[in-house]
Structure formats: C-alpha cells, structure tokens
Amino acid sequence: MCGIVGVIGRGPVNQLLYDSLLLLQHRGQDAAGIATMHGNHFNMYKAHGLVRDVFRTRNMRALPGTSGVGQVRYPTAGSSASEEEAQPFYVNAPFGIMFAHNGNLTNWRELRESLYRVDRRHINTNSDSEVLLNVLAHELQSAASGVSLDDDAIFRAVSALHRRVRGAYAVVAQISGYGLLAFRDPHGIRPLCIGRQETDEGVEWMVASESVALEGSGFSFVRDVQPGEAVFIDLDGRLASRQCAENAELVPCIFEYVYFARPDSMIDGVSVYDARLRMGEYLADKVARNMRLGDIDVVMPIPDSSRPAAMQLAARLNLDYREGLIKNRYVGRTFIMPGQAVRRKSVRQKLNAIGMEFKGKNVLLVDDSIVRGTTSREIVDMARAAGANKVYFASAAPPVRFPNVYGIDMPTQKELIATGRSDDEIARAIGADSLIYQDLHDMQQSVRDINPALKRFEASCFDGEYITGDITAEYLARLGQSRDSSAGEELAGGLQFNMGYAANDV
C-alpha cells in the first residue's frame, strides 16, 4: 500500500508535496520521494524512511518548481526493498514522465516481457510500477501526433493502457512541458481524489490517495477520480477528464475502510470514520448473539484504527468503555514491518497496558482485523500480565484467509493465522478465552449503508474472489516464492536527481 500525490501550483510546491506526504504517512513508512518540475527540468529526491527523516533542508532546496508528484511507499507483494524501487520513477522518452503508483499489477511479468520483445523498452528493476510507467510511455508515443500531445492523445493512451494492464493502480504522472495526468484502474480498487484551491495567482490542483491530504493542505475536496477515468490538468490549471475504460465498475478495496485509510478521509462517497462506527454496531449485534453480556466488564480498543468500532460496540451494548492500551506513536505499524521477529518485538515497544484498567476484569478487546496474529497474541499476553481475569477478542473484519494481490503486503497463506483454522482454534492460537469475528456481509453492509451505490467490494483476502479474473493457484505460488526470495533486503541512503529535459524532444 502506498500514498501518492500530484500538484499543479502557482508557486513553489516542494513544501506542499512534503506536507501532503506527511498526511499520507500512514499508507507507507518504507520510503518517500518527491519530484518537481522547474522549467523543462525534473528534480527528484527519494530515500528509505519516514518523510520527516528522508527530507532535509538541502533536499528541499534542490526541489524547485510549481508542479510535481510524491509518494510514500512500503513494498508490496514480492517486491524488493532496494533503493532503486523507491518512487517516483522517471522515463525520458518520448516526453519525459515522472510517475508515482499505488497498487499492484497482476500481469506485470507478461507486460515486462512484451515491453522488451515488442515495444523495445528496457526495465531496470523488478518493480511493477516501472513496468506500468513504460506501458504509459509507449502508449503516449503511439497516440501522439509527431512530437506533441493533446488531451485526446493522452486519453487514448490511457485507454490503450487499460486494455493491456490488469490489477490495481492509481497513478499520478507529471508529463514534462504538458501537465499532470491522473488515472485509476477500471475497478477503482485503490482510492484517488481531486482537490482545488483558489489563490491570488490562479487556481491550484491536487490529486491524492485520500481526501485528508487535500483538506490538510488547504484544498477543497472536489470529487473522486472514477474507476477507469483519466484526468489531465495542464500547466495553466485547465482540467479535462474522460472515461477511458470499457465496462468500468467501482469495486473498491474493503480493507481501506477497515484499516488503511485515515478515519478523517472520505473515499468514494463514504466517511471512513462513519464506516468504522457502523462496523462496531454490526459487530456488537454478533457479540450479543454469541456471548453473555454479563460476562464482559469492559470494552477496550487496540489503538488506533479500531477505536471507532470499539466505542460504538460498547455504546450499543451498554458496556463500559476504557482506553487500557497506550500507543507509542513513534513506532511503525507492525502489520507492514518485514520479519516476524521484528513485528513481535515492536508490539511491546508500540503498546503498553494500564494495569488498573485490566486488573481483575473480564475484558473484551476490539481490533480492526487479525492478519498474522502476532499483534493479537502479544496483546492478549499483555492483558493477562496486567491482571485481566478473562480476555475476549473481537475483530471488526472477518478472518483473513487468502492472499491479497492488489497492493496489500500479505501475499502467502502460510503467514495468515486463519489459514486452516476454525475460529476456536484461532482463539486458542492467540490465547483468548473467546473470539468473535465480524461477518463478511455485515462488514460490507457497514460501508454500503453510507453509499448504497457501492454494489461490490474487492474483498479477496476474506473471500478468495479476485475481481480481475486472472489469479490462479500457480500465480499465488509464484508470488509466495517471490516474497521469500526478497525478504530481508533493506534500503540505505538516498537518491538525488536533477534531470534536464527539453519538453518536446523525442
């Protein structure tokens, strides 16, 4: 999962891109990068680490320009953690493109082979994002009239890209001398939205993964980019858009609402916070059907993303709500940390129990989901060590039983605690006295209650149904092998680039 942002401004945008990436930091803490365009020159800096650690004053001074793109990243399924795979990516032909991508392509290996043998393009990394960039560059070259581009050529290029590419992709791309291009896959699996700001110098535009990046930077939310749609904003601030995919259908990733997105974001017409409250209501009803409420003394969230669901559950069941676990906000998410030993150690660094809230009580812990079970097991142990009498566990999401291939880093079934286990067996594995999972229909209905237009969701990690229709057992086996071979690789240092480019040279 990654966070991306693109800006067409009226003044220097380096600080604006930096601030936006801070607001998207929850979407990835592995690496960060910013690229700006100054005249016909691209300038870029990217490195391993958090936004605040990657960029220093000298880096920001080396990023002049009134437009640009940025990304925060963590490695997706099977990808390497090498410096070269941090984004943005750059290609210099035919027009010079700086590119940032959120998602994961499912046919990138076939595309890479086609790019080499047919399109005569060389790919330098194992990143599916570089493959996607080169597909875009090739289609722009095919659609262009000589050495120049217009809106129609750009949209025809995106249409051709949609016909070739499978998987999840939300993209922002700066085309040198022309403007900012943004587009979303035909299922709209990954989020992308548009914001606008009026200034004395003229209108400014921002495209970002979540609305919180827009609003926190002073932009007004305009709308979501539609599935299959391409949006082009030229350097004068003129916006044009077109539906570029056949049979486009909005099928957003349900895990965005459960876990990844910030609660203060709006995604595809749904308040993430409101969705999580409703998940708590549905979960409360299931708890009431399956447990004696008199056995529960207190409800506690596992901070932070489960807090709305836990609050609503406690209110609906008329149970006491307490904050018994305190989070250290300077430790990264355990879910996206590589290595089981690292995840286990970081849980203790990340959370601490308030003993008086646990001592002698029957506690119902509420989490947004259970993936590997590492965090759940450590927290149950922590609750017992703090003096809890009984420890019950409730998940606002159903059991995660299948790999995700659309950009979430849980690619192999052997890593998932729910694989091959019943609910009772999972409860024993994490050390809980009882375990309640949300039903899949109820989780989906929590979101659909807010926006009834959402008929379907990408929920493959729960139901094993892959909406792109191209996922086989062989694909998943290869994905697991790819992940195993890339484990343990690390980024170090940073990459600073200054690239001169004449906008219409080919």
Keywords for this entry:
PurF_N, 6-stranded antiparallel beta sheet, EC 2.4.2.14, glycosyltransferase, alpha+beta, 506 residues, 17 helices, 8-stranded antiparallel beta sheet, magnesium ion binding, Rossmann fold, 2 domains, amidophosphoribosyltransferase activity
Topology:
Elements: E1 2-8, H1 14-23, E2 31-38, E3 41-48, H2 51-54, H3 57-61, E4 67-73, E5 89-91, E6 97-105, H4 108-117, H5 128-143, H6 151-164, E7 167-175, E8 179-184, E9 193-199, E10 202-208, H7 211-215, E11 220-224, E12 229-234, E13 239-243, H8 254-260, E14 266-267, E15 270-271, H9 272-290, E16 298-301, H10 307-317, E17 320-321, E18 325-327, H11 340-350, E19 351-353, H12 355-358, E20 362-367, H13 374-385, E21 390-395, H14 423-430, E22 434-437, H15 440-448, H16 460-463, H17 473-486, E23 494-500
Parallel strand pairs: 16-17, 16-20, 20-21, 21-22
Antiparallel strand pairs: 1-4, 1-10, 2-3, 2-4, 3-23, 5-6, 6-7, 7-8, 8-12, 9-10, 9-11, 12-13, 14-15, 18-19
Helix pairs in contact: 4-5, 5-6, 9-10, 9-15, 11-13
